[in-house]
C-alpha cells in the first residue's frame, strides 16, 4: 500500500495490476514539480488524484483514472470512506464481501473465507464502488469497453478455493485438464503425475478424463521453505531436490504423464523431467494446461521478457528436445476457451485477455511503444543540471 | 544433537527414539555424582558411555546401550569415526547411504535424495555400524529380539517419498487407503476428499479402490505458515481457516468422504467437518487410515496421554457424534497388517510395534511402571537437603 | 536525510534546524497538488526546489530558500554536486573541512577529527557553498541579516571538543562556570560536583574560580545504556540510579555545590538532589550554567512547551523549594554574554539568539502566530471531502 | 552463571575469579567418567560438589572447595538457599547487602545502590555465608590464610562509586593520584589531563596535590559505543579517535601531564600521546597510577601473557621512547601501599595481592607449573581411542 497527505486529504492506495503509460505520466508530473519517492506506478495515480481540479474525492479519482492506461484493480481509503475500482476492461479481479455490517474489498473470494466473511459479488469492469457511513454506492464513470478478464487467473494465478465470474477456479482447472486430455492424450500412459502444487487440479481433471491413475510421483518438500536457515550456495547447487523429490518406487519403469500449468524459461521443467527419468521412468510426457507462453504480460503478472520465454522461439517439439521429454504438448487456445465455458475464442473480440498466448494486447502499451525502459524510471540516476 | 567432552574423548550424539528406563538410570547416575544439564534422555546415554570401564569406544557404546531400554536409533560421532546403531527391536528406522567415497546415516531415504546420495540398505535391528578411515564394519552386539518396526511410520510419520523395509511409504499408504475402502465403503459417495497434506496418499488409494472421484475439497493455505508476521490471538480465533479452506462450489450438495490418517484429540477433525458442512455438503463421512489411536507412544512419537486420546474413551459412533460427522470408521488392525503385506497380524508375536492401537508394548515401560513422572525428571525442581 | 526524484533530478537533503513557516507553505503546496509522505519540514524544502521555475540547481535552491523562514543549516546532494547553506541569521552551525582532495560539510568540528580531516572554516550566515568537479564556490544570495548564532550551543548542545566561531566549546563552558562562580558563590562550600556528563566543564570552571575542590560526587552508570536487555518497568521505577549513582563516602556531611547546564522540567534535578541528600550531604546548592530556561525553542532544539518549563512559572527560590535544594541560582544573561567574550548583551541588537532565556525571537514565528498546531500538520488526520 | 541437576539437587553457580588447578581437576574428573559441556572452571566446581560423599549441601560445597586452588568469590543457589563464599586469601571481593527482609550477595557495593539496598558488610576471606528461611549463618570452614585482597581493584577494576574494606574506591584512587604527584611531579606542567574514563579520579588527586589545573583535554566519544551500526574495518583504521578526541584549543602549546591507570600493551597509550601531540602539546608526560604491569594475572583479571606486557621487557625510559612521550613514570609499590592506607608494603607478607606488579603469586599456579595449556582444556579436540 501507498500512503500520502494530499490536497484531497490523506489517502491510502492498494493496487493490483500495472499501468502501461506510467512512465510518460511520471515524466510530465516531475516536469511540473512533483516529487517521487518510489518507483511504483501507484505513486503516479496518487499524484494525479492530488492534482485534479475536481473538488469531490470520487470525481478526483475518476479524473485521475481517465488519464491512466493499463490494467488495475484499486482499493482507496480516506479517513471517511473506502473505494474500489476496476479498469474498464476488468483485466484484474476485485470482489465485494460482507462481514456483519461492514463491506470488504479483496482480489479473491478465498480472502473472505479466511475472515469468515460472505461473498457478495464481483466488482464489474469499469465499476467504481464507494463505501462510507451512508452505505455502498456504485457507478460506471468510464467509457464502456469490452470485458477482458485475465484468462491466466483460471490457469494459475488465482487460488483454487476462490471463484471468479461465478466459476470455481478448481473446477475450471479440472476442466482445462480434461480438455487437455481430450486434445493431447498419451498412448500407453501408466500414471498422471502433477508438478506440485500448481499442477494438481489440472492433473486430476486429466486423470479423470483419461482414466489413467492420478499419482503423487513428485513430493514437494515443505520443510525447505519454512526453515530460517538460509541454504548456502553449495546446498542450492544440489538443485531442485530441495523443493521436490521423486517417488522412486512409483515411477520406475512407467510411462509417466507430467501435468504442469505452464513452461516459462524451462529451467524447472528440465530439472523435473530429469528427476523423473533418474527415478527410472520409461517415458516422460509433459502436458501443459495452458497454450504456449509466448509473450510478456504488461498487465500485472510478473513475467520475463519475450526473448526469455522458451515458447517465444521454440516449437513444442524443440521444447521437448530441450527439456529432454519424450513429448510436450499444450492445450489449444480454443480448447482453453471451451474449458472455461465458451463455445470457442471469438477472434474478433476475444472474451478474455489472452495476450500472453496470442500476443493480442487489449490495452495499448504506450510506454513500451515509446521505448521507455522501466529501468530508467528513477531520475535519481540522471544527472542534475 | 548432544555434545560433551568425556573420558572417551569428545562425543556428539543424535538420537531418534525414546528410552523407557531413562529416569531410573538418571537417578542412579546423579546419585554417583553425575551432572545433568538438560532433561534429554540422550544425556543419560552419554553419561553411560563416559562411565564405562571398557577401553575401546565401540565397547563403551555397547556397554552403555546394554543398560538402556527403549526404542532408539542413534548416530554417534567422535573425532575419528561415526557409528550408527538401532535398538534390538528395530522400532525406529535408520538407513545407510553412500555419496562418492563417504557413507551417510539417516532416518529416512528421502534425506539421501536431497543430497544426491545413493541408498545402500536399512541398518538391521540390533545392528551397530562403525565407519572410520578403515571403512565400514557391522556387528550385532546385543541379544537377538523379535523385530518390531513402528507401523505408524507407514501410516503417518515417514515422508511419502521414502521407503523402508524395501517398501515405498507412498505405496503403503495407498494400499492402506484401498483396504480402508474395502472395509469401510460409503454408499452413495460423490467425492473422496483428503485432509491435506497427510491424508492425500490414503485418499488416492481409497478413491482408486472405490471408483469414487478423488477431489481437493479442502485447500491448504500455504501462505500462513510462511509469513514472518505472527498472527495475533484475535486472528487465531478465526480458526482453522488460516490453515485450510474449503472448496465451496465442489462440496455443495455432495455426499463427501473425508480421508485422514488419524484422530488424536478430535479438535482438528471437528473443525474440518464443520467447514465441509458450512460449504454445503449433504453428508460427511470420516474414514481413518489407521485403527483407533487408543494408547500413548513411549517409543519416540510425541502423543498425548491416554486420557486425552479421543478413541481411548469413545467408540467410533460416539466420535462421529462428537465431531458431527455422519459416520466415522477406521481400518481394522488386521486390515492394516494386510495392507503392509502380511497375511494378518500374528497376535502371539506381532510383526510390528502397534502399541498405540493394541496397547501391547513390546518393550517394558520401566519408568512408567515405577510411576516416574516425566515432569519430575529435573531434580532442579526438588529441594536440596 | 530525505531523498526524492524531482524535476531538478534526484536530490538528497540533510537538515539541521527548524522552519517557522513550514505549515503555511505546506498548506499551499498541498493545495496545488503536492503529495506529502512525511511530517518533516525538510519535505517542504524539497517541494519548493522541485517547483521552482529556475533552471539551474543553485538558482532553484535559492528560490526555494527565499520562501522559507526559520533556522536552518542544510547539506544538499545531487548526482554531481554537494551544497551547504546556512540561514541568513546563522542560527545553527555548519562548518567546512578538508580531507585530501575532498571537502566535508558538517555541523561540528569534532566530526572532522573522527575521520582525520582538517577544519577549514565556518560557513557564514547566509552563505551558500557549492562543491563539484570544478571545485568550491561561495555566494551570499540572501538579503543580509544580523548574526544570531544560538548561544545554547556554547552552554549544552555542541560537543566540548568542537569549536565554533573560532572558540573552543570546552573553554567557553569553563568560562561560563567561572562567571557563574563569581556571580553566585556558595559560602562554606566543600565540594563542586558536576551533574554528569554535561555539567563537567562548567563545574571545572566553577571549581577553579572558587578554589573549592572539583569532585566526582555523582558517577554515571555507563553499563545501563549499553545493555541489550531492556529494563522492565519495575526496574525503571527504581529511578535515576540506573543512570547515576552517588559517591556516598565523598558526600556524607558535606556542603555540596551541584553544577548543571540547565533545569528543564526539574524532574531529573529533583532526583539528583534527593540522591545527594540520601548520601548524607549537609547542604545541597544547585548552580546552573545558563539563565533560566523560560521559553520554547522554535529553531531546532527540542524543548517542551513554555508551560512545561519550570522556570517559566517559578522563581529560583520556588524552584529550590520544588527540587528540595538549599539554594538554586543561575548565571545572568549579561554574565553569559561576558563569558562568551562580549562586553555585555547588546539589548537593541543581541549578538546571539537567546530566545529560550529572553523570549526575544529573532525570526518571526509565522506558524505559531497563525496558530497552526504542529500536531495538525498531517492532513492524514483530517477528513476528506 | 552455570546450572546443573546434581546429586545435591539443582544448583546454580556464579563465579568471580579463576582456579589455578582447574585443568588437573578436570582431567581427573573426566577420567572417572564426568562429562564436560563447557570449558569453564565453574563446571569443575559443580562436579566436585556433585561427587562429594558429604550429605549436607554446605558440607559438599566445603568438601569441593577444599580441593580447588585459586581466587574465587562464589554465589551458589539451590531451591531453598543461597550461599556466598570467598577463597581463604580473599583475593576477589564479595559483599552482603539487605533489602527489606532479603539478603543480597554482590561483588561490589554499587550494585546495592542501583536496587536501593543497604550495604551490610564485606564477606570475609575464607568465610561461607548461608541464607535460607531460617536466616543467615556464617562459618569459616577453611584453614586460615593471610589476607591478599587484589590491590588492582583499587586501581582500576572496581567502580569508583563502590567501597571495599570500608574504603571508598574513588577516594583511594584520588589518594593514589596524590601519591603519584608527590613521587613523580612534572616541572612546568600546565595541565593535568586524565585518559577517560578510568584515569579521572587519579588525575583529580594528582591535580589537587600538585596545584596544576585538572582539565578535560581528551573527550570520550559516547556515541560510538552506543551505535548499532558496526563500524567497518576502514572506519576502524581511522583509529582511536572513534573512542577519544582531543580538545585541541586546550592542549596547543601546553606542557601536558596525562594520567592513566596502567599501560598494558602500550597500543592505546601510543595513540593517545600521538593525538595530544597532534593537538599541538609542547610536552607530553605520562603518569601511571599503578606500578609497572609486568606479570599476568591468574586470579581473575583478564590480562595478556607476560611477554605481551610492555613493562615486562621495558624500563619506563624505553616505554617513553616507544609511546613517544617526553617521560613516563609510575607510582612505586610502596607508594601504592601508602596510598591505600598502609605504612609500607610488608615484603615478607604483603597486605595485598600485587602479583601483577611484584610477580609474587600468593596462590600456587599448579596448572601453569604443570604446563597445562589452557587452550588444550577441551578434550573435544583430542582423538578418541
Key terms:
homotetramer; 385 residues; alpha+beta; Glutamine Phosphoribosylpyrophosphate, subunit 1, domain 1; Rossmann fold; four-stranded parallel β-sheet; 16 helices; elongated; disordered C terminus
Structural summary, described in words:
Four copies of one chain form a homotetramer. The first copy, chain A, has helices at 22-31, 41-51, 57-67, 110-115, 152-157, 169-183, 200-210, 222-226, 233-236, 248-251, 267-278, 310-313, 316-323, 333-339, 355-358, 366-369, and strands spanning 2-6, 9-19, 70-77, 82-86, 95-99, 102-106, 118-122, 128-132, 135-139, 149-150, 163-164, 167-168, 191-194, 218-220, 244-246, 255-260, 283-288, 327-330, 352-353. The model of chain A is unreliable at 224-230 and 375-385 (pLDDT under 50). Chain A has two domains: 2-148, 4-Layer Sandwich (Glutamine Phosphoribosylpyrophosphate, subunit 1, domain 1); 167-342, Rossmann fold. Helices cover 32% and strands 23% of the residues of chain A. By secondary structure, chain A is α+β, with helices and mostly antiparallel strands. In chain A, the strands form six sheets. The first copy, chain A, has a six-stranded antiparallel beta sheet, covered by helices on one side. In chain A, strands 13-16-17-18 form a four-stranded parallel beta sheet, with helices on both faces. Chains in contact: A-B, A-C, B-D, C-D. The interface between A and C is large, with 38 and 38 residues.
